[in-house]
Design brief:
Blueprint (H helix, E strand, L loop, with lengths): L17 E7 L4 E7 L4 E9 L7 E6 L7 E4 L5 H14 L9 E8 L10 E2 L2 H9 L8 H14 L5 E5 L9 H4 L5 H6 L9 H15 L7 E7 L3 E7 L2 E5 L21 H8 L5 H10 L2 H6 L4 H9 L3 H25 L4 E5 H6 L1 H8 L11 H5 L6 E2 L8 E4 L4 H13 L2
Helix pairs in contact: 1-3, 10-11, 11-13
Amino acid sequence: MTTAPSSEGSRSMNDAHRVLVLNSGSSSVKYQLLDMRDRSRLATGLVERIGESSSRLVHTPLAGGGEPRERTGRIADHEQALKAAADELAADGLGLDSPELAAIGHRVVHGGLRFSEPTVITDEVLTEIERLVPVAPLHNPANITGIRTAQALRPDLPQVAVFDTAFHTTMPEHAARYAIDVETADAHRIRRYGFHGTSHAYVSRRTAELLGRPVAEVNVIVLHLGNGASASAVAGGRCVETSMGLTPLEGLVMGTRSGDVDPAVTFHLKRVAGMSTDEIDVLLNKRSGLVGLCGDNDMREIRRRVDKGDERAALAFDIYIHRLKKYIGAYSAVLGRVDAVVFTAGVGENSAPVREAALAGLEGFGLAVDADRNAVRSGEPRLISPDDARVAVAVVPTDEELEIAGQTFALVHN
């Protein structure tokens, strides 16, 4: 694969209308190629189990309605993974050497306080992302690897970082600070940053569009419910509170993460159970949440078990819903006026029982779900509240890749 524009590159930058979005995880790379003229997807793909003998690449060309292609066999590292993805794109006539490619947008999990907007990646920016590794040890190193690999493949192309934390930098200090010694907190960057920001930004904006009102006039509670889960209170398009904190561990009950716990639990486990810091980290991040409560983190399976009378699954579901209700109530108080509560991400978009249970008993808040509307499965944004409801309840499918592509394209074409 070549890494410089082809001879067709005499076209102006205005003719470059494609954006490649990369989401580099510790052992995977997800990618999407989008045409920003109509915001359509040209191709999507996933490389998983990087570094293992069972590595797998699944590539789906969408522009011509092609069938998914799969290849297996060891992919040693992220460089090989991106080169393999580039080869698949080239096979569809969508190679990274195309002059139609305007930029590569990277999902970067942690941007700290410095990065509140999408940012063209320079050496200085990359150094700052590296400095944030201690507060995002599971995510930023993989993001950095993806950036460096993409830079090596297309050194002439703008590379843009879009930060998960950026949307939440508008939180006021009284919401962002923990009540611990200020000097200690500042010395070690301890504060609430929040995550899933691209999803909360996209969904809150789309909710205003669904209501037919300007973003600046709408107060929304966004519930991003996937294997990772977070809530946000968005006032007039600005985040004023969110459930995740220094790390993605705080807040709602998640697939494998505990969410809120008394901090003294960690001291107790260390002193009484003799667990190490690393063991406690694994417990709270990978062996807690729904999987810790009932052995499953798939809400569909949990609901099947609940319907069969499984008491552990029922308790796990009730704990999950109880935490959701607490945040809906708290964020209603923070906002003062709520125009909509919106569900998004895998569970939020697809689990009618979760949506119904989360709002049951909250009629005093003006919240209600229409059973027939709630039962409808659709990939489109939609209202599921009764016509006369004081507060709208909506389901809005998230699209983090489109949000990253849009922010990236807007930046390089300014």
